[in-house]
Design a protein that fits this description.
By secondary structure, the protein is α/β, with parallel strands linked by helices. The chain is 40% helix and 20% strand. Helix 8 packs parallel to helix 9. The longest helix has 16 residues.
């Protein structure tokens, strides 16, 4: 078995920043409750590491977080807003109940939300995202009261735009907008499309690296949480050309059948942006036992 961890694996800077903020709060406030509103990042391994530092996690969807906080707030606690971003409803709760909340939103998501809020009201906006994802739920609120429509990419997209002369298309940061733009153009070539492409440059670079290596390896192993949108994007990309593709979060998912099927093969390991180097190293060391 020849194993290679492809470059650009491990945490992205946004995840590193969110974790750094959480651990600094814990260190600087040893006698206070530190409570994260939602999963700080979508990775159970990372979340469990954070919890080991006596940090609580309110693991609920975004809208339920807002309801929970408005009914269960603690003025003595320090809250941490997760990396996936939030809408003004959280800011209003902070003011209303005089809460202490530190923002760990990814800088890329912050920029996305600022740009979404600035979009015009008089042009139809189509937002492509994964329904229920923390970022999607919060970000779409910035345009929900405009002339907008949410398109769930988990469903087949068949554009019905007969009454539109001009549209704006935009996206969740872990959703590639290009394929949806192509569908609109092919069906409605005369419609003017204004594109606000929010596709995360870090994920875009990782996908480029995977594409460049699809023909060089027999097996691809994606390490990340099944809840991670970018992990799913990477895994789905490997499936386009590689027959032996696996999506795992721990060594427990590396069954004997998988091990036996990848022996004597060239194996590439890739990871989501919320997957730590430690998590990758644990799996890599385990696989090295079967060389």
């Amino acid at each position: 078995m020849n194993i290679k961890v492809l470059s650009a694996s491990g945490y992205c800077n946004g995840v590193k920043n969110a974790i750094r903020v959480a651990l600094t709060l814990r260190n600087d406030n040893p006698d206070k409750k530190i409570i994260i509103l939602g999963e700080l990042v979508h990775n159970e391994f990372t979340t469990n590491k954070i919890k080991e530092n006596n940090i609580e996690v309110i693991d609920l969807p975004y809208d339920e977080i807002i309801f929970y906080l408005s009914n269960n707030y603690d003025n003595n606690a320090i809250y941490l807003a997760c990396a996936h971003g939030h809408y003004h409803d959280l800011d209003e709760l902070i003011k209303k109940y005089n809460l202490t909340i530190v923002d760990a939103t990814c800088p890329i998501v912050k920029r996305i939300n600022k740009n979404l809020e600035s979009l015009p009201n008089d042009i139809k906006i189509y937002y492509f995202g994964k329904k229920g994802h923390s970022e999607q739920t919060a970000s779409f609120k910035y345009i929900a009261f405009k002339n907008s429509e949410f398109i769930d990419i988990k469903t087949e997209f068949d554009p019905i735009l007969e009454n539109e002369n001009e549209v704006i298309i935009t996206n969740q940061s872990t959703v590639d907008l290009a394929k949806f733009e192509e569908k609109i153009v092919s069906k409605y070539p005369n419609i003017k499309i204004n594109k606000l492409d929010n596709f995360c440059p870090v994920l875009k670079e990782r996908m480029k690296i995977v594409e460049e290596n699809l023909d060089k390896y027999d097996v691809f192993i994606t390490i990340g949480s099944k809840h991670s949108s970018n992990a799913n994007e990477l895994f789905n990309l490997t499936k386009t050309k590689c027959k032996d593709c696996y999506f795992i979060d721990s060594i427990d998912e590396l069954t004997s059948n998988i091990i036996n099927s990848i022996k004597n093969k060239k194996v590439a390991i890739i990871s989501a942006t919320s997957t730590s180097d430690e998590q990758i190293e644990i799996i890599l060391n385990y696989l090295n036992n079967f060389r």
